[in-house]
Amino acid sequence: MIHHLSPNGKIGLVLANGSLSSQSGGEGEIRKKIIEDGLVEGIIAMPTAVLNALEIILPNDDALASFEESVKPMFLQIQANNTESARLATLRDTLLPKLMSGELSVAEATAK
User: What is the pLDDT of residues 35-81, one digit of tens each?
Assistant: First the structure.
């Protein structure tokens, strides 16, 4: 989940009791890295009874459809921006070495 965050993004995680002390499967190293990278703001321990009493409200299908309709154009624009950014990076990586070596000059490129 952390790798999906933007540089200043935030995330809240609910972990099972014992998750912070378990050493199986490399969990200790993962927690150590998360803390070393300054990604932890705080840890709150909640009794199981409190967590079990929490009511999680899910939106109905109409609300989900409405939300999807309103954010879909944004995601399509993000996808288009990412594609354009990758194309420009490829172009930069192709042209920059040629410009730096003198193989290509700006004057030549604009004259063609």
Answer: 888 877 777 777 878 888 988 899 999 999 999 999 999 999 999 99
What is the domain range of residue 91? 58-112
> Over the chain, what is the mean pLDDT?
85
Closest CA to 11 of 42, 52, 51, 45: 42
The number of domains in the chain is 2
**Does residue 40 sit in the same domain as residue 63?**
no
CA–CA distance, 85 with 79 (Å, rounded to integer): 10
* Residue 12 sits in the same domain as residue 27: yes
In order, the DSSP letters of 34-84 are HHHTT---------HHHHHHPPPP---HHHHHHHHHHHHHHHHHHHHHHHH
pTM of the predicted structure, to 2 decimals:
0.48
